[in-house]
Amino acid sequence: MLERFKVPEKDRVYVQEGRIRAATEALFRKMGLDDQGAKTSTDVLIMNDLRGVESHGVSNMFRRYIQRYQAGVANPNPKPRIVRQTATTANVDGDGGLGVHIGPDMMRMAIDRARQYGMGAVTVSHSGHLGGCGSHAMLAAEADMIGLCMTGSYARDKATFGMVPTFGAEARFGTNPIAWAAPARHRAPFLFDIATTQVAGNKIDLARRVNAMLDPGWITEKDGTPVMKTGPVPDEFLLLPFGGTRENGSHKGYGFATVCAIMCQTLSGASLARSGSQYQGGYHFFAAYQIEAFCDPEEFKDNLDEALERLANTKPAPGHERVVYPGQTEGEEIVRRRREGIPYHREVIDWFQGIGAELGVTIELP
User: Fold this and answer.
1) CA proximity to 144, closest of 171, 115, 174, 121
2) How many CB atoms within 10 Å of residue 269?
3) Rounded distance, CA 183 to CA 197, Å?
4) CB contact set of 335 (below 8 Å; sequence gap of 6+)
5) How many CB atoms lie within 10 A of CB 180?
6) Phi and psi dihedrals of 126, rounded to 5?
7) Rounded to a whole number, what is the largest CA-CA distance in the chain?
8) Helices assigned H by DSSP within 118-212
9) How far apart are CA 127 and CA 74, in angstroms?
10) Could you report the per-residue pLDDT of 280-331, keeping only the tens digit for each?
11) Distance (Å, rounded) from C-alpha 188 to C-alpha 193?
């Protein structure tokens, strides 16, 4: 994550993992989730915070989830139902459950199929926010498999957080993220986890919180004109595909977003043209590949270690301290934050205390 999106030192409150987990689980249970559902949902959010992916941790997403539960839009007790399946695949109706709640079980379903047949894939419809694709892809890596996770959503009706196609003046996608994970021997696992927009939508919330500037080519005006100057977050805007402009390769981000939409929505049996005003408009795709079906898994991990080592030891260009591979800094952050605590903005701590008081839940944070 870019330095500008991180919490300024003066505003940081360090919280130990156990305390923020306890507070988050208690609030999830207050929303009607059972113990396992609260734990599963909390695991996704806190692992994002531990990895330094604060845009998808409790700072931004949790308050939105609380609002959805309170509004009766998200289902706290979903009963996912298999609509169609084969030995290696399944199409599942998520029954309005948040992706953080049901997503891990969907990836485990793919892992179970891969364990038997070499590969497994699951599409999910009628679900809510996934809480970041990386956490789900990593479940496969932790099972010594290669994991793939995508999520597709409809563009919101209002002019914000929707992605325009290249040359477009209307949003046609959400941020449509993709994650890919693979296990290594000694090094941190490879984890490639990106939005297909130039900047992840949730980072806009972080930018607002810490008063960070947006770079040229990240967003558009309301009419689709790319904003090509540095500036604060405007009230209304649209998101550009990664690449920003056609000259810089926005057609590639647009193409990846379309692939994501096809795999998550079209493959689930949904139209891409539907309005996205309903929170249950989330569609997900999970896949797991058993390494042993292709090669010796121990040899794979040794070879990947060697490859990642080579990448990390690349000579850095002038002005840069080092080269890192996808997943390396996340692995380092987990170690650091479990030792020192997770740095949250004071506003986030205040929100926890406030919502706890409102709901009658005791919150024990600094």
Assistant:
1) 115
2) 13
3) 26
4) none
5) 22
6) 50, 55
7) 55
8) 133-142, 201-210
9) 8
10) 458 999 999 999 999 999 999 999 999 999 999 999 999 999 999 999 999 9
11) 14
Enter the pTM of the model.
0.93
**Structure tokens given for 15:** 């919280």
Structure tokens at 4: 């500008």
pLDDT, tens digit, for every residue of 95-145? 999 999 999 999 999 999 999 999 999 999 999 999 999 999 999 999 999
Q: Is 125 helix (H, G, I), strand (E, B) or coil?
A: strand
Evaluate whether 147 touches 288 at the Cβ level (below 8 Å). Answer: yes
Structure tokens at 252: 């590639």
Distances (CA, A) of 261 to 99, 173, 176, 267, 268: 16, 8, 7, 9, 10
Least Cα distance to 343 among 44, 6, 71, 29 occurs for: 6
Question: What 3-state DSSP class applies to 233?
Answer: coil
pLDDT at 273: 65
What the block records as the tokens of 121 is 């894939």
Angle at which helix 35-51 crosses helix 133-142, to 10 degrees, equals 100
Strand ranges for the chain from DSSP E = 12-15, 81-85, 89-93, 119-127, 145-152, 178-182, 190-194, 219-220, 238-239, 282-290, 342-345
Residues 6+ away with beta carbon under 8 Å from 235: none
Q: pLDDT grade, residue 13 (50/70/90)?
A: very high
For the record, the structure tokens of 269 come out as 């049996």
